[in-house]
Amino acid sequence: NVGGDALIVLEEWACYTIEAMTALELYDDELLVVQGKIDESTLKNGYGKETATYDTGLGAVEFMGYSFAVGMAMEKHEPEYLDTEMGKNFREFIGFNTERTLT
User: Distance between CA atoms of 87 and 103, rounded to whole angstroms?
Assistant: First the structure.
């Protein structure tokens, strides 16, 4: 039986992906400086866009791999689940969030 414990990995993956997408928007150095949220010295100390988005994006990629492992375990141990409506939703989510993670 596919339980919530295994599928929580998908929720974590979605959260990391959204965090990375948000970081790409919020860590636009010029925008933050113009808004007065950070100053030029902060950028010079290495806390700019490259650092924040690189570190944040790693969680999304890491959990993408864990989510693929959940799918492979389902395929091996409960292949009938993938033929259900929930299984269809699972496969669609994997495709959707993979695209979001990698773009």
Answer: 25
